Amino acid sequence: MSATHTILNLPDQRTATLPKRTYINNEDGLLSWLFTGDHKRIAMLYLISITFFFFIGGAFAGLIRLELLTPQPDLVAADTYNKFFSMHGIVMIFLFLVPSVPATLGNFLIPIMIGTKDLAFPKINLLSWYLYWIGGLFTLAALVLGGVDTGWTFTTPLSTHYLNTHVVTAATGVFIIGFSSIFTGLNFIVTIHRMRAPGMTWFRMPLFCWSNYAASILMVLGTPVLAITLVLVGLERLVGIGVFDPTKGGDPLLFQHLFWFYSHPAVYIMILPGMGVISEVISTFSRKRVFGYTAVAFSSVAIALFGFFVWAHHMFIMGVSNYSALVFSLLTMLVAVPSAIKIFNWAFTLQKGSITFETPMLYAFGFLGLFTIGGMTGVFLGALGMDIHLTETYFIVAHFHFVMVGGMLMAFLAGVHFWWPKMTGRMYPESLSKLAAVTTFIGFNLTFLPQFILGYLGMPRRYHAYPQEFQVLNVLSTAGATVLGVGYMLPLLYLAWSLKYGAIAGNNPWQATGLEWQIQSPPLTENFIEIPIVDHEAYDYEWLEHKTAQEVTTVG
Amino acid sequence: MDNVTVATHPHTHETAVAAEHQHVALPQHRHHFETEEQQREAGTFGMWLFLLTEIMFFGGLFFAYLLYRNWYNPAFVVSSNQLSIPLGAANTAILIASGFFMALGVWAAEVRKKGLLLLFLVLTTVFGLAFLGIKAVEYHEKWEKHHIPGASFDVSQFINPQAYGLKEKPLAPDMAQKTQVFFFLYFAMTGMHAFHMIIGIVLLFWLMWRANRGEFSSGYVAPIENFGLYWHFVDIVWIFLFPLLYLINRHPV
Fold first, then answer.
1. How buried is residue A379: exposed, middle or buried, by Cβ count under 10 Å (0-12/13-18/19+)?
2. Beta partners for A524?
3. CA–CA distance from B132 to each of B120, B148, B228 (Å)?
4. Among A79, A323, A455, B240, which has the minimal tally of Cβ within 10 Å of its Cβ?
5. Does the pLDDT at position B33 exceed 50?
6. Which CATH architecture has domain A34-550?
């Protein structure tokens, strides 16, 4: 790790200072944060909130892995175990993954990237954070009052007829969080359509904006369907309306259709913004324009579009007609094409690039490998015959953890490290963060690769006991989870440390091209003193070189 | 400290300021929008997107209706006959009138006539409340006939229509049970619609209060326009509900 192999360019630490006036110190006091309209402050509020819920969800993951250390059901009773994995799923999906990149990095960066002062509706943006917390408190209430054991899917008739836990409380929580996500998406779409700076055409936008735009479409169109479905589940439980109850003529499968109509696109809500982060990081650390920019941009929209027509692949074994299963299987394989386009284009971006291995890039490499495995196994599961063998086994668990944790969480951490100097004005300790990235990668693979094998051998998901012969792989998986836990604790510690003691980062530590790197770190409340006029494409490193050569001011 | 911009064009602070001063800035103009035009467009666009989410929200219910109507057509037909066409038609007319006055209200705001705007907003509200009143009468009738899904739901009218003086073919008991699905969807769809109307009427009172203070009489009409979009959307939902629930296929062979 010699100094020559990095593009990191920090100002002289003996003379460097943080800017006098920034969005952080513009106003003082807790209330100035709680009633702020500034997208950057709201992003920071979100970052703190989702980190809190991430560690709650993570604690449940730890408990699950601890129970599965031995084949015997020795740590907790079966229904407690059910509550563990339900709470793990609900918290991780609705309170962490869905808002992770959009509500934190997206909120912070999209207005700056397109050259405007704020999102279109700052008050709605703040409302979205409050809704997130109200929903989060409902979820926590369900947990404290005794838990919920439906799984995150609220499957009927289990959730409506056979359980005596706090389903309605948890569903209310998810309903409210849904509106928080709708408002975020709505804000992004309007902002990207109406607020771009002069010269910032659609095809000059950074790919991060494109992918968040695509995810926003999914949020706006998909989430309301989840909302009405949860209303129906609640009514079914409280009043017994019969719409999902076969004894009254209702159809439990209707619930599945409505639920997955949201929840499959929700997978793309979770992964698309992460793909945007990867585009930015890979371009910056290989000093090249993203190969096939237009293809990558449109593949985001294509994923959003196709994502709406694959939901029934969650229902192959639930008695849908063979013909519709065939069509949905085909469409599922089609949606792999735009994802593959992205992977190939990132690979070609790397080709002949001047690659350096800073922390965000390490996470991005982790993403590339793990997301590819996660995506490919998704194609296995989309194939009808394989799906019948593998569905409801640990293969599924491993598959979506590769996409969600190996993909999205890696991308999220890549993004947090990449933009940390911009958000806080300070650098984190480089060697420690590299250690964390490598630890995460090793821990992740140790946790979830054995689960592919377990699933293929037929170990079903959602059981707290298993036959003796599965123990070795389960012990490996639990050991991996421990390593993974360390990998996630490290950034929490050193990022907090860096807030006070980190090196001053300067405006553009990575020599990156985005508009966000051309302003001070941390930015002013109004982002730009003067709205920029954009006359170059995204990832134009020659433009950057030219601009830097002309500058006479010293950095700092 | 310095905030480096990427401007390489001859775009200076002076020209930007001059352009801004060509028209009088409204007090409602928010700082993060470059122009009022941009603010207005963003607001309207946001409202349309919100209505899109509303369509998806109601879409789930319409989908359920479509499915169960196909499965339990006889039960749906017989239950549909229980709804009163005169009341439904009157409500349709009333809601269209309310929407008409809303449209006039938008016009009154655009031509900056405060008195007319207030009048039209009041009329919009009165017709909206009339709709809800008639809906309440209809709901009450269902209550008396035990047609509200739940424990007190009674299917005897559909099993033995003659005894109740109805000119319907009797339904088999298992099909008669399915009328409950119809009535649930009826209450869910019209109830969700009524809920949107109640929210709208609360907003109308707020807008009337603001209009009375003269907020919309000086060229700033965005809230009136956007509320108008919402109110028309609520109308349109009813325009679909009325035929689906009351009208189609009332007298099968």
1. middle
2. A527
3. 18, 18, 18
4. A323
5. yes
6. Up-down Bundle (1.20)
Share of chain B above pLDDT 90, in %: 59
Both tokens of A44, joined, read 């920071």
Contact between chains at A186 and B16 (C-beta distance less than 8 A): no
3-state secondary structure string across B60-110? HHHHHHHHHHHHCHHHHHHHHHCCCHHHHHHHHHHHHHHHHHHHHHHHHHH
**Given CA atoms A527, A528, A532, A537 in this order, what sign does their dihedral have?**
negative
- Is B61 in contact with A251 (Cβ distance < 8 A)? no
Tell me the C-alpha distance between B220 and A20, whole Å: 38
Q: Tokens 């607020």 map to which residue?
A: A195
The CA distance from A255 to the nearest CA of chain B, in Å, is 9
Q: Among B46, B59, B149, whose Cβ lies nearest the Cβ of A190?
A: B46
Tell me, rounded to whole angstroms, the distance of Cα B78 from its chain centroid.
27
What's the pLDDT band for A4 if we cut at 50, 70, 90?
low
DSSP label of B242: I
Confidence of residue A61 (pLDDT cuts 50, 70, 90): very high
pTM: 0.92
Q: Distance (Å, rounded) from C-alpha A103 to C-alpha A96?
A: 10
Q: Cα–Cα distance between A72 and B37 in angstroms, integer?
A: 67
pLDDT value at residue A549: 79
Write the CB contacts of B217 (distance below 8 Å, at least 6 apart in sequence). Answer: B109, B112, B113, B114, B117, B211
If 0-12 CB within 10 Å is exposed, 13-18 middle and 19+ buried, where does residue A15 land?
Answer: exposed
* Count of C-beta atoms within a 10 Å radius of residue A420: 24
Whether the predicted pLDDT of B200 surpasses 70: yes
| 8-state DSSP, A204 | G
Q: Which of A103-107, A245-249, B47-51, B132-136 has the lowest mean pLDDT?
A: A245-249
Residue B23 confidence (pLDDT) above 80 = no
DSSP class of residue A355 equals: -
Which residue pairs from A166-169 have beta carbons closer than 8 angstroms and sit at least 24 positions apart in sequence?
A166/A141, A166/A142, A167/A233, A167/A237, A168/A234, A168/A237, A168/A238, A169/A138, A169/A139, A169/A141, A169/A142, A169/A145
**pLDDT at A6 > cutoff 90:** no
**Which residues are CB-neighbours of B140 under 8 A, at least 6 positions away?**
none
ipTM of the modeled complex: 0.89
Name the DSSP class of A248.
G
Query: Residue B102 corresponds to which tokens in the numbers above?
Result: 């809303």
Chain A CB contacts of B1 under 8 Å are 19-20, 520, 556
- For residue A236, the distance in angstroms to the closest alpha carbon of chain B comes to 10
Give the residue with greater pLDDT, B167 vs B208.
Answer: B208
Cis peptide before A522 (omega within 30 of 0): yes
> What one-character DSSP code corresponds to residue A522?
S
Structure tokens at A356: 């350096």
pLDDT at A440 > cutoff 90: yes
In whole angstroms, what is the distance from residue A485 CA to residue A439 CA? 9
| Tokens coding A525 | 């409340």
Contacts of B61 in chain A (CB under 8 A): 228
Q: Which residues of A touch B184 (CB under 8 A)?
A: 241-243
- In the numeric block, the tokens 């740590």 are attached to A75
Q: Is-contact A523 A21, C-beta < 8 A? A: no
| Residue A426 three-state SS | strand
The rounded distance, in Å, linking the Cα atoms of A109 and A294 is: 21
CATH code of the domain occupying B34-247: 1.20.120.80
- Residue A265: which of A299, A316, A310, A211 has the closest Cα? A310
In one-letter notation, the amino acid at residue B144 is E
**A194 vs B53: CB contact, 8 Å cut-off?**
no
Partner residues linked to A426 by β-bridges: A504
